[in-house]
Structures are given as structure tokens and as C-alpha cells.
Amino acid sequence: MDLHSLEPRIHPTAIVASGARLGRGVVVGPFGLIEDGVTVADGCEIGPRVTLFQGTEIGPRCRLHSNVVLGDLPQDLNFRGGESWVRIGSDCILREGVTVHRGTATGTATVIGSECLLMAHSHVGHNARLGNGVILANGALLAGYSEVGDRAFVSGNCLIHQFTRVGRLAMMAGGSAAQMDVPPFCITRSLTVNTVIGLNVIGLRRAGMGSEERQSIKNAFDLIYRGGLGISRALEIISAGPMSDGVRELHDFIRSSKRGICKFIRDSRETDTERPPLAA
Q1: Residue 95 near residue 119, CB atoms below 8 Å
Q2: C-beta separation of 132 from 169 below 8 A
Q3: Which of 184-213 are b and which e, b meaning 16 or more Cβ less than 10 Å from the residue's Cβ?
Q4: How many domains does the chain have?
Q5: Is 197 helix (H, G, I), strand (E, B) or coil?
Q6: Do 103 and 211 sit in the same domain of this protein?
Q7: Full domain range(s) for residue 250
Q8: Closest by CA position to 105, among listed 81, 135, 87, 128
Q9: In the chain, what is the straight-line distance between the N-terminal and C-terminal CA atoms, in Å?
């Protein structure tokens, strides 16, 4: 279907302000509200009772299910008004009841990358940033200024504290919470706070990471978390030697952490059989 030949289709019960910009082939379902200053790119599907407030910008081919609310005022007592935005990339799916709030300070934005899936009733707070391919499962809650790296998976009912970072290809297990940074490639422990149990080996394989790269990341993880040296000394040793791209990413993420990183706890469910014993 050639989207450029299609005018937007707006249900008669929806309210779309004259200053909203809708691309070709956009479909707006019943009882929706789209305010002035909203941009919806080509090929988007806007479901029933969706509310898009001023400052919302949605990339091509996104699907918004019923009762999604984007661009409402930040839940921040420091908010003093002013223009700010919610910006969503292409090919995202937002399921029922998802909420994303716009930035607090004038000229700032809450940003969601491309090809993200936000499941039902997940929330992204003001000024948060999600990379590409991020998945938030049902009920995941991201506080203001939090950051989630590319292809990270945040499971159901997880909590991410304000200013906390979750690294690329990390996986937060169901019901876990993070007030400290979750390093790239790591898995948190279910129903705990600030703990990791190992590496997201399956996620690394699915991302196409080769065995040599995975092994180098495992060696660095062991040195940081199992070596008994302390994080600062472990990072010094890692930086003194050759670093693969993945190891450099892990090293730089931890080095730049302002909140500190989650602690390690050995878990009986850990099945990382690729890891060799630590050298003597």
C-alpha cells in the first residue's frame, strides 16, 4: 500500500486539533484526543481513547493501543511550565495504558528510540531516555532521568530509580528494582534491589555476539565481580590490557557511573557454563 496516496483516517468521535500534523496513512481511532503541536508520522495507528498532548512527536509506523497517554505534564514538583517534548522513534508498539511524560526543563525531551515495545501499563517518566529495541514488560516503571540502553529487557513490575542507568543488552528480571546502575550485558535477580546474578548470555548470542567476544566479557565480569580486587582495581587491570568492543563498553559504563553499580550475588539458577575457572 502506498502511504503517500492516503489521507489520514480519523474516527468521527476523535478530536484532532487543527494544529496537529498527521502523516499519510495515519489512522485515529474513536474517542481519541490529539492536541495542537503534535506530530504523527506516516503509517501510524492510533487506537481508541489515546491522548496525545502538545509536544508529542511520533515516528513512522508506530502502533498505539487503547488508553495510551503521551506528553502529559511531568510528575515533578520542579516543573515550572515551558515547552518540552516526548519524542518516539519509528516502528514502536505501545500497548494498553502506557504513559510517557514530557521533559521538565524548558527545551528538554523524554526520548524513546526505534523498534521499542512498551507493554501494558508501563510508565516512562520525564526526561528518561530509551535506546533502540528496548522492551518494557507489563507494569515496568521508569522514573525521571533514567536511561535504558539498546535492546535491554525490563521485565514485569520492575522499578528503575531516577537517574539510574540500565546498560545495553541487560535484562532486569521480574519484580527487581535498581537504584544503582545495571551494567551492560548483566541480569538482575528477581524480587531484589540492586543485585546482578550473571551475564545475559542468551541475549548476547541473539544479538549476534561471537563466542570470543562473549568470553572476553565474561572474563571482565569475573574480574570485576568475582576477583576480590574491588571495582576500581579491577577496572585498572582491564584498562591496562587489550579490550574488545564489549569489554570497553562494560569498562566505560562502570567507570562513568555516578550512582555506583549493582552488587553481585551468586544464584543457584545461574547457568553460565561458558565461563572458565578464574586463573590462579
Answers
A1: yes
A2: no
A3: bbbbbbbebebbbbbbbbebbeebebeeee
A4: 2
A5: strand
A6: no
A7: 205-264
A8: 81
A9: 63
Asked if residue 152 lies in contact with residue 169, where contact means CB atoms within 8 angstroms, the answer is yes
DSSP run (H or E) holding 70: strand 69-72
pLDDT confidence of residue 266: 84
Neighbours of 1 (CB within 10 A): 7
- Does residue 247 sit within a domain? yes
Is-above-0.85 flag for pTM? yes
Residues comprising the chain, all counted: 280
Amino acid identity at 56 = T
Q: Do the beta carbons of residue 264 and residue 226 sit within 8 Å?
A: yes
Asked whether residue 25 is domain-assigned, the answer is yes
Indicate whether 167 belongs to any domain.
no
Do 56 and 130 fall within a single domain? yes
239: Cβ contacts below 8 Å, ≥ 6 apart: 251
Task: Tell me the C-alpha to C-alpha distance, in Å, between residue 236 and each of 12, 219, 277.
Answer: 64, 14, 21
Average pLDDT, consecutive stretches of 10 residues, N- to C-terminus, the chain (280 residues): 77 98 98 98 98 98 98 96 97 99 98 98 98 98 98 98 98 98 98 98 97 98 96 97 97 98 81 40
- Give the CATH number for residue 105: 2.160.10.10
Selection from 141, 265, 138 nearest residue 194 by Cα? 265
**Helices 231-240 and 211-225 meet at what angle, rounded to 10?**
140
Q: What are the residues whose beta carbons fall under 8 Å from the beta carbon of 255, sequence distance 6 or more?
A: 235
